[in-house]
Batch of 3 targets.
Target 1
Amino acid sequence: MMFPLFYRSIHPMLTLHSRVSRKFSLQAAVSSGPQEFRCSSITSTRIRNLNGAVRALKLEKPRSFYGDSVIVADDDKYGNKQVISVTPQLYKYILANVREPEILRDLREETTTMRGSQMQVSPDQAQLLAMLVQLIGAKRCIEVGVYTGYSSLAIALVLPESGYLVACERDEKSLEVAKRYYKRAGVSHKVDVKHALAADSLKSMILNGEACSYDFAFLDAEKRKYHEYFELLLQLVRVGGMIVVDNVLWHGKVADPLALNDSMGE
């Protein structure tokens, strides 16, 4: 799981922004007709379409609509904070509104036919990674754990022409798929594929004088070695850069005292 820190709403037509006079204002750009939005966490909204129609709405959606999607923290110190869980219905909505280039969609669909396809990041995660790379103006990136290249391709597509992405992966069969899509997308010149154990590749880069020369890193590889990978990436990523780590909550096992370390696979 990667935390969804959205600069813009995931919906391509919505922007959520804070205001002083109200808790939030939700502005929607639509082609015709006023649109109605209802949400349990926002007390009121102002909806405006392109024709200028404005409608103020009360948010009174029945609690049953949200089901188990809203969880309230049981510790009073957090002020009864409500946390929204990603239910199947909500996740379907998220995926339906992700901006996914055709080349990424083709790669995703091909990967679903392969063994271990659950290792591929989801379209919303890939969009988040690409957005983060753009927000910090990254030019030099590292990915530890490539699989078939969905996330690395998403990153490479938003890098400038002079951008550089080191892609570390040990599985040759998966890399062949990734390289085929790098070429098809016209980004092969940006990607330096390292077919080897990731730790060895990262150590070699440090010995080669590349410490503190990278802007961004994404870690999604063997979980037992996360600590080692992270310490190596700390040496390679510059001060002020960004390291994104996948699976940090590991299906909730990090909060389960009965979960064993040896249950954490790749």
Target 2
Amino acid sequence: MQYWVPKALTLGVLLGLTGCSVFPNDAHNSKNYRVNEGINVPDGLEQPYQDPQYKMTVAVYDNNSDSDAKLYRPPQQVLTLAQGSWAESKDKIAKVYFDKNDGIEDLSAFIWDSLDGVLVNHNTGVVKDARQQGTIETDWYSLIRKDEGWLWEDIVEVSRQRFAFTVEQKEHQRTASLSAKLLDYQSDEQPLTDTLKQQLEVRALNEVIAEFDYRYRLLAVELRKQQGLLSLQGGFDQDGNAAMLTLVEKSAVMDRLSNFLERVNFTVIRLDRELDQVKIRYEAPDQSVWDSIWGEEATVLPVADGDYIVKVSTTDDGQTALTWLDSEEQVLDAQTMELLLQSLLEVLRSRGLQI
């Protein structure tokens, strides 16, 4: 038996009966006002009864009116685009919070640098620099501009503003906040209202968030490049065979190595954790003229196509050794290992990869 059927019908009836309380009666608002003429009854027929209590004047709201009612705009939203950024919904001011991401040594300094980058983009500077106390005041710059003429020949400044930015850092120094406050405003076209003030403050804040995001993305790429550059080096395993050495623990190397090799045209055939071996197959990538034109040429490694085995072991000094064997399980000679290592390091640097 379908027990949900009567329940659904009951719910529908309840919703219908409570519709008047759920949806507010805003019919008399000038924006919603629309009352048409009554029914024209032919001669000889009675006019339908209409209760005088509900009779409304025939009228239609003028949607083309230039009244102030059309000028309402929603509040500007803080756009937490940067990694580790967030906002409090209860904040009544333009404010954003940043968490200290990996690679950032001084969070407040990173925020100030992002703000300085925004001011440079606007060709303006700082009037009062008290960042040691957590605040600065900017010179004049424009957030609102409009284009006139063809293309971008004429850019008209609608208004210009000055802001105060404040950075507050928690005692644990893992979180900091940035807030913006409008200090001065000048415009011959647009008067300042409370809504416009809020929009300008949040827009100024969003520019800093975007700059923070851009700078951290560049930092993350550099960190990956440095980590990739340092993650592999030439050496020998505990048996004296030429190998690649890394400081990454042996238990973590297996998965990370296989993921890395798949991105440089190796195919992982088997991951043997009992023997600490990764069996792989290499196929050199096809090169095309278009790849060279667009600068997307894949790196060709100095090894022949075929199957290989990478043995993962630990050296006496605690490093992890990667020893390469060919399809006949013969250890690759030192010269081949050196060329292979240099090629892999080049891939790590160019792509920002790491093991």
Target 3
Amino acid sequence: MRNTIIVSHFRLAFTNISAVASSGLIYYYHRCCHRNWVVRKKLRLSSVRSWMSAAESSASVRVLPSKKEQDSTLILLHGFGSSASDLIPLAESVAPPSTKCILPEAPLRHDAPFPVRAWFSLDLTSHLWYRCSDKEGLESTLNRIFKLVADEIEKGISSNKIFIGGFSQGGAVTLNCMLRSPHQLGGFVAASSWLVGEEEYPAKLLSTHLETPLFMGHGENDSVVPFALGKHSAEIIRSFGFKNIMFRSYPKMDHFINEQERRDIENFLNSCYFDRMVSKSTLSH
């Protein structure tokens, strides 16, 4: 495995609508270890059509069976403009052997010049893009994730052996799941993310997970979701009474997951799986 596993980097480079109209939108989309695609305005029409066709025909969920008899489940949520397949290398490398991985795929939304997969819409023209104006989209996504959790419980998986994690926008959904899940789950992971819908709390807050472990990792050089926003989100959640939050920063890291953070996530999930106390000594150094 390379030193850095890039889970998703879907950077939107623009300043305002007029700039987009005149010069086009450039997407930098780094795929996990294998591909480095750059989609530009001058792409041939046939390439764009091929990309659109592939996006529209993608499965709604990817499932990775456990390597041993299943007794736990990890639900991983991809970032804005990404897809479930981008998280497969991460899922395979961090999940305990008896853990099945469920990788849902977000619906296509028109948040860009062409449809992109997103868990809820973002106003990308605003400097307050991180606020959620699409409450209906967020609610729909949360209900979908809670349904996946309920299905696993119905199949016989103990709720405290179900874990939810996400990258970027997927992490934003994960944090809301933690604050509002009616089931006592085993742990949560939010990488390069932030708390969306902050204004909804504490009104919609459930106290189910006040003791449940939460791992938040963030690159100090994140150029997509600012490091300060991620750290502030952790502080807000802690102020709600959540006692088991671990926020870890990674110097010189941009909007991706490097090998150190990957190991930290793996160690965190293993600690949650075996019901061990999660502490800084649990993580890599």
